[in-house]
Amino acid sequence: MKSAVLALAAAALVAGPVAAQVPTGTMDALRPDQQQFFKLYKELVETDTTVTNGNCTQAAAQIATRLKAAGFADDQVTLFSVPDHPKEGGIVAVYPGTSKALKSILLLAHIDVVAAKRADWVRDPFTLIEENGYYYARGIADDKMMAATWADMLIRFKQGGYKPKRTVKMALTCGEETDTAFNGAQYLANNKRELIDAAFALNEGGGGDTDGNGHIVAQSIQVGEKIYQDYKLVATNPGGHSSQPVRENALYAISDALLKIREHEFPAEFNDTTRVFFARAGAARKGAMGAAMVALVKDPNDAKAAAMVNTDKGLHSMLRTTCVATMIDGGHALNALPQRVDANVNCRIFPGHTPTEIQEQLARVIGNPAISIEQARKDKPLATSPPLDPAIIGPMETLSAKYFPGVPVIPSISTGATDGLYLSAVGIPTYGVPGAWGDPDGNGVHGLNERLEVRAVCVGRDYLFDLVKALAE
Protein backbone atom coordinates (compact mmCIF):
# COMPACT_ATOMS: atom_id res chain seq x y z
CA MET A 1 0.00 0.00 0.00
CA LYS A 2 1.02 3.56 -0.60
CA SER A 3 2.76 5.49 2.17
CA ALA A 4 1.51 8.89 3.28
CA VAL A 5 5.00 10.41 2.97
CA LEU A 6 4.01 12.51 -0.05
CA ALA A 7 1.12 14.03 1.83
CA LEU A 8 3.39 14.90 4.70
CA ALA A 9 6.13 16.31 2.50
CA ALA A 10 3.88 18.31 0.22
CA ALA A 11 1.36 19.58 2.72
CA ALA A 12 2.39 23.17 2.15
CA LEU A 13 2.50 23.11 -1.65
CA VAL A 14 0.25 25.56 -3.46
CA ALA A 15 -2.22 24.03 -5.91
CA GLY A 16 -5.61 24.79 -7.39
CA PRO A 17 -8.84 22.97 -6.63
CA VAL A 18 -9.16 19.44 -7.93
CA ALA A 19 -12.07 20.51 -10.12
CA ALA A 20 -9.80 22.93 -11.94
CA GLN A 21 -7.12 20.32 -12.47
CA VAL A 22 -9.08 17.58 -14.21
CA PRO A 23 -11.26 17.37 -17.32
CA THR A 24 -14.79 18.51 -16.54
CA GLY A 25 -18.18 17.45 -17.81
CA THR A 26 -17.70 13.71 -17.28
CA MET A 27 -18.63 13.30 -13.64
CA ASP A 28 -22.34 14.16 -13.62
CA ALA A 29 -23.16 10.78 -15.15
CA LEU A 30 -20.93 7.84 -15.92
CA ARG A 31 -19.97 7.35 -19.55
CA PRO A 32 -20.81 3.95 -21.08
CA ASP A 33 -17.20 2.78 -20.66
CA GLN A 34 -17.28 3.94 -17.03
CA GLN A 35 -20.48 2.02 -16.43
CA GLN A 36 -18.80 -1.12 -17.76
CA PHE A 37 -15.84 -0.49 -15.47
CA PHE A 38 -18.07 0.11 -12.47
CA LYS A 39 -19.75 -3.29 -12.85
CA LEU A 40 -16.36 -5.02 -12.85
CA TYR A 41 -15.12 -2.86 -9.96
CA LYS A 42 -18.23 -3.54 -7.89
CA GLU A 43 -18.07 -7.29 -8.44
CA LEU A 44 -14.41 -7.38 -7.47
CA VAL A 45 -14.87 -5.22 -4.37
CA GLU A 46 -17.88 -7.22 -3.20
CA THR A 47 -15.99 -10.51 -3.46
CA ASP A 48 -14.38 -11.15 -0.08
CA THR A 49 -10.65 -11.74 -0.62
CA THR A 50 -9.38 -11.59 2.96
CA VAL A 51 -6.87 -14.24 3.97
CA THR A 52 -9.22 -15.43 6.74
CA ASN A 53 -12.57 -15.90 5.01
CA GLY A 54 -12.06 -14.80 1.42
CA ASN A 55 -11.33 -16.36 -1.94
CA CYS A 56 -8.91 -14.70 -4.35
CA THR A 57 -9.23 -17.67 -6.70
CA GLN A 58 -12.92 -16.91 -7.14
CA ALA A 59 -12.22 -13.23 -7.79
CA ALA A 60 -9.59 -14.13 -10.40
CA ALA A 61 -12.04 -16.49 -12.11
CA GLN A 62 -14.60 -13.69 -12.31
CA ILE A 63 -12.05 -11.47 -14.05
CA ALA A 64 -11.20 -14.31 -16.43
CA THR A 65 -14.87 -14.69 -17.36
CA ARG A 66 -15.09 -11.01 -18.28
CA LEU A 67 -11.87 -11.11 -20.32
CA LYS A 68 -13.02 -14.13 -22.31
CA ALA A 69 -16.43 -12.58 -22.89
CA ALA A 70 -14.59 -9.61 -24.43
CA GLY A 71 -12.78 -11.91 -26.86
CA PHE A 72 -9.60 -13.06 -25.11
CA ALA A 73 -8.53 -16.53 -26.21
CA ASP A 74 -8.04 -19.31 -23.68
CA ASP A 75 -4.26 -19.25 -24.17
CA GLN A 76 -4.18 -15.52 -23.37
CA VAL A 77 -5.67 -15.98 -19.90
CA THR A 78 -3.94 -18.06 -17.20
CA LEU A 79 -5.52 -18.79 -13.83
CA PHE A 80 -3.10 -20.11 -11.23
CA SER A 81 -3.09 -21.42 -7.67
CA VAL A 82 -1.19 -24.05 -5.67
CA PRO A 83 -2.65 -27.08 -3.86
CA ASP A 84 -1.66 -25.85 -0.40
CA HIS A 85 -3.44 -22.52 -0.95
CA PRO A 86 -6.41 -23.23 -3.22
CA LYS A 87 -8.21 -19.98 -2.36
CA GLU A 88 -5.20 -17.70 -2.86
CA GLY A 89 -4.90 -17.91 -6.64
CA GLY A 90 -4.57 -15.20 -9.25
CA ILE A 91 -4.67 -14.45 -12.96
CA VAL A 92 -2.29 -13.46 -15.74
CA ALA A 93 -3.61 -12.08 -19.03
CA VAL A 94 -1.66 -11.23 -22.18
CA TYR A 95 -2.68 -8.68 -24.82
CA PRO A 96 -0.32 -9.16 -27.78
CA GLY A 97 1.61 -6.28 -29.31
CA THR A 98 2.79 -5.88 -32.89
CA SER A 99 6.54 -5.44 -32.22
CA LYS A 100 8.89 -8.39 -31.97
CA ALA A 101 11.69 -6.14 -30.71
CA LEU A 102 10.01 -4.27 -27.87
CA LYS A 103 9.61 -6.12 -24.58
CA SER A 104 6.27 -6.25 -22.78
CA ILE A 105 4.74 -3.99 -20.15
CA LEU A 106 3.45 -5.75 -17.02
CA LEU A 107 0.49 -4.32 -15.09
CA LEU A 108 0.55 -5.60 -11.50
CA ALA A 109 -2.06 -5.30 -8.74
CA HIS A 110 -3.06 -7.36 -5.73
CA ILE A 111 -6.65 -8.47 -5.18
CA ASP A 112 -6.41 -9.57 -1.55
CA VAL A 113 -7.54 -7.16 1.16
CA VAL A 114 -7.11 -6.60 4.88
CA ALA A 115 -9.79 -8.14 7.10
CA ALA A 116 -12.78 -5.95 8.00
CA LYS A 117 -15.18 -6.62 10.88
CA ARG A 118 -18.75 -5.65 10.01
CA ALA A 119 -19.59 -4.61 13.58
CA ASP A 120 -16.85 -1.97 13.52
CA TRP A 121 -17.84 -0.39 10.21
CA VAL A 122 -20.58 2.17 9.61
CA ARG A 123 -21.36 0.42 6.31
CA ASP A 124 -21.06 -3.19 5.15
CA PRO A 125 -17.36 -3.45 4.21
CA PHE A 126 -18.12 -5.83 1.34
CA THR A 127 -20.85 -3.78 -0.29
CA LEU A 128 -19.76 -0.94 -2.56
CA ILE A 129 -21.64 2.16 -1.42
CA GLU A 130 -21.51 5.65 -2.94
CA GLU A 131 -22.01 8.44 -0.43
CA ASN A 132 -21.14 12.16 -0.46
CA GLY A 133 -18.92 11.83 -3.51
CA TYR A 134 -16.99 8.81 -2.24
CA TYR A 135 -17.07 5.07 -2.84
CA TYR A 136 -16.88 3.05 0.40
CA ALA A 137 -15.82 -0.60 0.82
CA ARG A 138 -12.88 -2.68 1.93
CA GLY A 139 -10.31 -2.72 -0.87
CA ILE A 140 -11.95 0.18 -2.70
CA ALA A 141 -8.54 1.86 -2.72
CA ASP A 142 -6.06 -0.84 -1.69
CA ASP A 143 -5.78 -2.29 -4.25
CA LYS A 144 -8.95 -3.19 -6.12
CA MET A 145 -9.29 0.15 -7.90
CA MET A 146 -5.99 -0.54 -9.66
CA ALA A 147 -6.81 -4.21 -10.26
CA ALA A 148 -10.18 -3.31 -11.78
CA THR A 149 -8.58 -0.56 -13.87
CA TRP A 150 -6.01 -2.93 -15.37
CA ALA A 151 -8.60 -5.63 -16.17
CA ASP A 152 -11.05 -3.11 -17.61
CA MET A 153 -8.24 -1.58 -19.68
CA LEU A 154 -7.48 -4.88 -21.41
CA ILE A 155 -11.19 -5.35 -22.11
CA ARG A 156 -11.34 -1.85 -23.66
CA PHE A 157 -8.25 -2.61 -25.75
CA LYS A 158 -9.90 -5.77 -27.09
CA GLN A 159 -13.25 -4.11 -27.72
CA GLY A 160 -11.60 -1.18 -29.51
CA GLY A 161 -9.28 -3.31 -31.62
CA TYR A 162 -6.25 -1.45 -30.24
CA LYS A 163 -2.90 -2.64 -31.59
CA PRO A 164 -0.06 -1.59 -29.28
CA LYS A 165 3.56 -2.03 -30.25
CA ARG A 166 4.42 -3.57 -26.89
CA THR A 167 2.60 -6.61 -25.56
CA VAL A 168 0.66 -5.62 -22.45
CA LYS A 169 0.50 -8.21 -19.67
CA MET A 170 -1.54 -8.13 -16.48
CA ALA A 171 -0.96 -10.04 -13.23
CA LEU A 172 -3.55 -9.85 -10.46
CA THR A 173 -2.29 -11.70 -7.40
CA CYS A 174 -3.08 -12.58 -3.80
CA GLY A 175 -1.01 -12.45 -0.62
CA GLU A 176 0.29 -8.88 -0.56
CA GLU A 177 -1.53 -7.90 2.61
CA THR A 178 -0.37 -10.84 4.75
CA ASP A 179 3.37 -11.37 5.03
CA THR A 180 3.09 -15.05 5.92
CA ALA A 181 0.51 -15.94 3.25
CA PHE A 182 1.11 -17.47 -0.17
CA ASN A 183 2.21 -14.57 -2.34
CA GLY A 184 1.16 -14.75 -5.98
CA ALA A 185 3.66 -12.17 -7.21
CA GLN A 186 6.51 -14.04 -5.56
CA TYR A 187 5.25 -17.32 -7.02
CA LEU A 188 5.08 -15.90 -10.55
CA ALA A 189 8.49 -14.25 -10.29
CA ASN A 190 10.16 -17.41 -9.05
CA ASN A 191 8.24 -20.10 -10.94
CA LYS A 192 6.53 -18.52 -13.97
CA ARG A 193 8.96 -15.80 -14.95
CA GLU A 194 8.43 -16.36 -18.67
CA LEU A 195 4.70 -15.73 -18.23
CA ILE A 196 5.21 -12.26 -16.73
CA ASP A 197 8.53 -11.30 -18.30
CA ALA A 198 8.55 -7.60 -19.17
CA ALA A 199 10.78 -4.60 -19.71
CA PHE A 200 9.17 -2.94 -16.68
CA ALA A 201 6.04 -3.12 -14.53
CA LEU A 202 3.48 -0.59 -13.30
CA ASN A 203 2.12 -1.08 -9.79
CA GLU A 204 0.56 0.58 -6.76
CA GLY A 205 2.63 2.88 -4.55
CA GLY A 206 2.33 6.17 -6.42
CA GLY A 207 -0.64 8.48 -6.80
CA GLY A 208 -1.92 11.84 -5.72
CA ASP A 209 -2.38 13.47 -2.34
CA THR A 210 -4.80 16.22 -1.40
CA ASP A 211 -4.72 18.73 1.42
CA GLY A 212 -8.12 17.48 2.58
CA ASN A 213 -9.89 20.51 1.11
CA GLY A 214 -10.26 19.53 -2.54
CA HIS A 215 -6.74 20.47 -3.64
CA ILE A 216 -4.26 17.98 -5.09
CA VAL A 217 -0.88 19.01 -3.69
CA ALA A 218 1.35 16.40 -5.35
CA GLN A 219 1.51 13.34 -7.57
CA SER A 220 4.13 10.73 -6.74
CA ILE A 221 5.95 8.04 -8.66
CA GLN A 222 7.20 5.25 -6.45
CA VAL A 223 10.74 4.41 -7.47
CA GLY A 224 11.87 1.77 -5.01
CA GLU A 225 10.92 0.74 -1.51
CA LYS A 226 12.36 -0.34 1.79
CA ILE A 227 12.68 -3.98 2.85
CA TYR A 228 10.03 -5.20 5.28
CA GLN A 229 11.60 -7.46 7.91
CA ASP A 230 10.34 -8.79 11.25
CA TYR A 231 12.76 -9.96 13.93
CA LYS A 232 11.78 -12.27 16.79
CA LEU A 233 13.51 -11.49 20.08
CA VAL A 234 13.40 -14.17 22.80
CA ALA A 235 14.48 -13.97 26.44
CA THR A 236 14.39 -17.10 28.61
CA ASN A 237 14.82 -17.71 32.34
CA PRO A 238 14.42 -20.61 34.80
CA GLY A 239 11.62 -18.63 36.42
CA GLY A 240 10.38 -19.35 39.92
CA HIS A 241 7.87 -18.26 42.53
CA SER A 242 6.78 -14.64 42.29
CA SER A 243 7.01 -14.28 46.07
CA GLN A 244 10.80 -14.54 45.77
CA PRO A 245 11.71 -12.20 42.89
CA VAL A 246 15.20 -11.83 41.45
CA ARG A 247 16.68 -9.24 39.11
CA GLU A 248 17.20 -11.78 36.30
CA ASN A 249 13.71 -11.58 34.81
CA ALA A 250 12.89 -12.34 31.18
CA LEU A 251 10.35 -9.51 31.05
CA TYR A 252 12.89 -7.01 32.30
CA ALA A 253 15.50 -8.29 29.86
CA ILE A 254 13.17 -7.88 26.90
CA SER A 255 12.06 -4.48 28.18
CA ASP A 256 15.66 -3.29 28.44
CA ALA A 257 16.33 -4.54 24.90
CA LEU A 258 13.29 -2.80 23.44
CA LEU A 259 14.12 0.47 25.17
CA LYS A 260 17.62 0.36 23.69
CA ILE A 261 16.12 -0.18 20.24
CA ARG A 262 13.77 2.75 20.85
CA GLU A 263 16.70 5.01 21.61
CA HIS A 264 18.82 3.85 18.67
CA GLU A 265 18.83 6.08 15.59
CA PHE A 266 20.01 4.59 12.32
CA PRO A 267 22.08 7.08 10.29
CA ALA A 268 20.46 9.21 7.60
CA GLU A 269 21.33 8.40 3.99
CA PHE A 270 20.23 9.22 0.46
CA ASN A 271 19.90 7.29 -2.76
CA ASP A 272 19.14 8.67 -6.23
CA THR A 273 15.37 8.65 -5.64
CA THR A 274 15.31 10.23 -2.19
CA ARG A 275 17.85 12.85 -3.24
CA VAL A 276 15.52 13.98 -6.03
CA PHE A 277 12.52 13.78 -3.71
CA PHE A 278 14.02 15.99 -1.01
CA ALA A 279 15.36 18.50 -3.54
CA ARG A 280 12.06 18.86 -5.45
CA ALA A 281 9.65 18.63 -2.53
CA GLY A 282 11.80 20.91 -0.43
CA ALA A 283 12.10 23.54 -3.17
CA ALA A 284 8.32 23.53 -3.68
CA ARG A 285 7.53 23.70 0.00
CA LYS A 286 7.45 26.97 1.88
CA GLY A 287 8.85 27.62 5.34
CA ALA A 288 11.63 26.22 7.46
CA MET A 289 10.90 22.57 6.64
CA GLY A 290 11.33 23.08 2.90
CA ALA A 291 14.57 24.96 3.43
CA ALA A 292 15.83 22.20 5.74
CA MET A 293 15.03 19.50 3.16
CA VAL A 294 17.04 21.30 0.48
CA ALA A 295 19.89 22.01 2.89
CA LEU A 296 20.10 18.35 3.88
CA VAL A 297 20.45 17.30 0.25
CA LYS A 298 23.36 19.71 -0.14
CA ASP A 299 24.99 18.63 3.12
CA PRO A 300 23.78 15.39 4.77
CA ASN A 301 25.86 16.33 7.83
CA ASP A 302 23.93 19.55 8.42
CA ALA A 303 22.81 18.90 12.00
CA LYS A 304 20.41 21.84 12.16
CA ALA A 305 18.63 20.79 8.94
CA ALA A 306 18.50 17.17 10.09
CA ALA A 307 16.94 18.15 13.40
CA MET A 308 14.17 20.03 11.57
CA VAL A 309 13.51 17.26 9.02
CA ASN A 310 13.41 14.58 11.71
CA THR A 311 10.42 16.25 13.37
CA ASP A 312 8.36 14.92 10.45
CA LYS A 313 7.91 11.16 11.00
CA GLY A 314 7.39 10.47 7.31
CA LEU A 315 10.52 12.29 6.19
CA HIS A 316 12.47 10.81 9.10
CA SER A 317 11.53 7.31 7.97
CA MET A 318 12.36 7.97 4.32
CA LEU A 319 15.93 8.87 5.26
CA ARG A 320 16.98 5.75 7.14
CA THR A 321 16.32 2.24 8.34
CA THR A 322 13.76 2.18 11.16
CA CYS A 323 12.99 -0.51 13.72
CA VAL A 324 10.11 -0.54 16.19
CA ALA A 325 8.62 -2.98 18.70
CA THR A 326 5.16 -4.11 17.60
CA MET A 327 4.20 -7.15 19.71
CA ILE A 328 5.17 -8.82 22.97
CA ASP A 329 4.13 -12.13 24.55
CA GLY A 330 5.42 -13.61 27.79
CA GLY A 331 4.86 -15.28 31.10
CA HIS A 332 2.83 -18.34 31.97
CA ALA A 333 1.13 -17.51 35.27
CA LEU A 334 0.16 -14.47 37.31
CA ASN A 335 2.07 -15.77 40.34
CA ALA A 336 5.24 -17.00 38.62
CA LEU A 337 8.38 -15.40 37.27
CA PRO A 338 8.33 -15.49 33.47
CA GLN A 339 10.29 -18.32 31.89
CA ARG A 340 10.05 -16.97 28.33
CA VAL A 341 9.17 -13.65 26.71
CA ASP A 342 8.93 -13.08 22.94
CA ALA A 343 8.87 -9.71 21.22
CA ASN A 344 8.51 -8.72 17.58
CA VAL A 345 10.56 -5.87 16.19
CA ASN A 346 9.48 -4.65 12.76
CA CYS A 347 12.17 -3.02 10.62
CA ARG A 348 11.87 -1.14 7.34
CA ILE A 349 15.34 -1.37 5.86
CA PHE A 350 16.77 1.33 3.61
CA PRO A 351 17.82 0.04 0.16
CA GLY A 352 21.40 -1.17 0.09
CA HIS A 353 21.33 -2.94 3.47
CA THR A 354 20.52 -6.58 4.19
CA PRO A 355 18.32 -8.10 6.91
CA THR A 356 21.36 -9.93 8.27
CA GLU A 357 23.27 -6.66 8.55
CA ILE A 358 20.42 -5.06 10.50
CA GLN A 359 20.08 -8.16 12.69
CA GLU A 360 23.75 -7.82 13.64
CA GLN A 361 23.27 -4.11 14.39
CA LEU A 362 20.30 -4.87 16.65
CA ALA A 363 22.40 -7.40 18.56
CA ARG A 364 25.09 -4.76 19.13
CA VAL A 365 22.50 -2.20 20.21
CA ILE A 366 20.91 -4.61 22.71
CA GLY A 367 24.27 -5.80 24.03
CA ASN A 368 22.83 -8.89 25.72
CA PRO A 369 23.88 -12.18 24.11
CA ALA A 370 21.31 -14.02 26.24
CA ILE A 371 18.55 -12.57 24.04
CA SER A 372 18.24 -14.43 20.77
CA ILE A 373 17.34 -12.56 17.58
CA GLU A 374 15.97 -14.40 14.55
CA GLN A 375 14.55 -13.24 11.24
CA ALA A 376 10.87 -14.14 10.98
CA ARG A 377 11.38 -14.77 7.26
CA LYS A 378 14.57 -15.38 5.33
CA ASP A 379 13.16 -15.88 1.83
CA LYS A 380 12.49 -12.26 0.90
CA PRO A 381 14.65 -10.66 -1.79
CA LEU A 382 16.54 -7.42 -1.25
CA ALA A 383 14.85 -4.20 -2.31
CA THR A 384 16.24 -2.89 -5.60
CA SER A 385 15.37 0.62 -6.72
CA PRO A 386 14.60 0.91 -10.45
CA PRO A 387 16.35 3.59 -12.51
CA LEU A 388 14.82 7.03 -13.03
CA ASP A 389 14.42 6.15 -16.72
CA PRO A 390 13.20 9.18 -18.72
CA ALA A 391 11.46 6.86 -21.20
CA ILE A 392 9.20 5.69 -18.37
CA ILE A 393 9.13 8.67 -16.04
CA GLY A 394 8.69 11.18 -18.90
CA PRO A 395 5.23 10.02 -20.05
CA MET A 396 4.05 9.95 -16.43
CA GLU A 397 5.11 13.57 -15.99
CA THR A 398 3.69 14.68 -19.35
CA LEU A 399 0.28 13.17 -18.67
CA SER A 400 0.28 14.49 -15.12
CA ALA A 401 0.74 17.98 -16.53
CA LYS A 402 -2.32 17.38 -18.74
CA TYR A 403 -4.55 15.94 -16.06
CA PHE A 404 -3.21 17.85 -13.03
CA PRO A 405 -1.71 21.12 -14.29
CA GLY A 406 0.50 22.89 -11.80
CA VAL A 407 0.84 19.86 -9.54
CA PRO A 408 4.43 18.66 -8.99
CA VAL A 409 5.34 15.07 -9.85
CA ILE A 410 7.87 13.75 -7.34
CA PRO A 411 9.74 10.41 -7.34
CA SER A 412 9.76 8.78 -3.91
CA ILE A 413 10.58 5.51 -2.21
CA SER A 414 7.91 3.73 -0.24
CA THR A 415 8.44 3.38 3.49
CA GLY A 416 5.81 0.65 3.33
CA ALA A 417 5.95 -2.44 1.13
CA THR A 418 4.50 -3.65 -2.18
CA ASP A 419 4.74 -6.75 -4.36
CA GLY A 420 7.06 -4.80 -6.67
CA LEU A 421 9.82 -6.17 -4.43
CA TYR A 422 9.49 -9.62 -5.99
CA LEU A 423 9.52 -8.34 -9.57
CA SER A 424 12.55 -6.12 -9.10
CA ALA A 425 14.38 -9.09 -7.58
CA VAL A 426 14.14 -10.97 -10.90
CA GLY A 427 15.09 -8.01 -13.06
CA ILE A 428 11.73 -6.38 -13.81
CA PRO A 429 11.96 -2.69 -12.75
CA THR A 430 8.68 -1.73 -11.07
CA TYR A 431 7.18 1.72 -10.69
CA GLY A 432 4.26 2.94 -8.59
CA VAL A 433 2.19 5.15 -10.88
CA PRO A 434 0.49 8.54 -10.41
CA GLY A 435 -3.24 8.93 -10.97
CA ALA A 436 -6.00 8.56 -8.38
CA TRP A 437 -5.62 10.67 -5.26
CA GLY A 438 -6.22 10.23 -1.56
CA ASP A 439 -6.74 12.43 1.47
CA PRO A 440 -4.32 13.20 4.32
CA ASP A 441 -6.13 10.90 6.75
CA GLY A 442 -5.31 7.85 4.63
CA ASN A 443 -8.91 7.21 3.47
CA GLY A 444 -9.41 4.39 5.94
CA VAL A 445 -6.99 2.08 4.12
CA HIS A 446 -6.28 -0.92 6.41
CA GLY A 447 -8.70 0.70 8.87
CA LEU A 448 -12.37 1.54 9.15
CA ASN A 449 -14.67 2.77 6.38
CA GLU A 450 -12.13 2.67 3.55
CA ARG A 451 -13.08 5.13 0.84
CA LEU A 452 -11.95 6.74 -2.42
CA GLU A 453 -13.35 9.83 -4.08
CA VAL A 454 -15.53 8.97 -7.09
CA ARG A 455 -13.72 11.51 -9.25
CA ALA A 456 -10.37 10.11 -8.14
CA VAL A 457 -11.47 6.71 -9.42
CA CYS A 458 -12.78 8.04 -12.75
CA VAL A 459 -9.95 10.45 -13.49
CA GLY A 460 -7.28 8.08 -12.21
CA ARG A 461 -8.63 5.38 -14.51
CA ASP A 462 -8.51 7.74 -17.52
CA TYR A 463 -4.97 8.79 -16.64
CA LEU A 464 -3.76 5.19 -16.43
CA PHE A 465 -5.47 4.29 -19.72
CA ASP A 466 -3.59 7.08 -21.48
CA LEU A 467 -0.35 6.23 -19.67
CA VAL A 468 -0.30 2.58 -20.67
CA LYS A 469 -1.06 3.48 -24.29
CA ALA A 470 1.76 6.04 -24.29
CA LEU A 471 4.24 3.54 -22.84
CA ALA A 472 3.02 0.77 -25.17
CA GLU A 473 4.00 2.88 -28.17
What does this protein look like?
The structure is a single chain. The protein has helices at residues 5-9, 18-21, 32-45, 56-69, 144-160, 184-191, 193-196, 250-263, 272-284, 287-298, 303-309, 313-318, 355-366, 390-403, 420-425, 454-472, and strands spanning 77-82, 85-95, 105-110, 129-131, 134-136, 168-173, 200-203, 207-210, 216-225, 227-236, 240-241, 322-330, 336-337, 340-349, 372-375, 409-414, 430-432, 437-438, 451-453. It is an alpha/beta fold and 473 residues long. The strands form 5 sheets. A 6-stranded mixed beta sheet has the order 1-2-6-3-7-17. Helix 10 (287-298) packs across helix 11 (303-309). Mean pLDDT is 92; it is low at 2-17 and 19-27.
Key words describing this protein structure:
473 residues; alpha/beta; Aminopeptidase; Alpha-Beta Plaits; six-stranded mixed β-sheet; 16 helices; 19 strands; globular; disordered N terminus
Using the coordinates above, name the CATH class of the largest domain. Alpha Beta
Distance between the termini: 29 Å
pLDDT below 50 for ≥5 consecutive residues: which ranges? 2-17, 19-27
- Shape field: globular
The main β sheet shows up as: 6 strands, mixed
Average predicted confidence as pLDDT? 92
Summarize the structure.
The chain has 473 residues and is an alpha/beta fold. The chain is built from 16 helices and 19 strands.
Q: How do the helices and strands line up, and which of them pair or pack?
A:
Elements: H1 5-9, H2 18-21, H3 32-45, H4 56-69, E1 77-82, E2 85-95, E3 105-110, E4 129-131, E5 134-136, H5 144-160, E6 168-173, H6 184-191, H7 193-196, E7 200-203, E8 207-210, E9 216-225, E10 227-236, E11 240-241, H8 250-263, H9 272-284, H10 287-298, H11 303-309, H12 313-318, E12 322-330, E13 336-337, E14 340-349, H13 355-366, E15 372-375, H14 390-403, E16 409-414, H15 420-425, E17 430-432, E18 437-438, E19 451-453, H16 454-472
Parallel strand pairs: 3-6, 3-7, 7-17, 8-18, 9-16
Antiparallel strand pairs: 1-2, 2-6, 4-5, 5-19, 8-9, 10-14, 10-15, 11-13, 12-14
Helix pairs in contact: 3-5, 5-16, 9-10, 10-11, 14-16
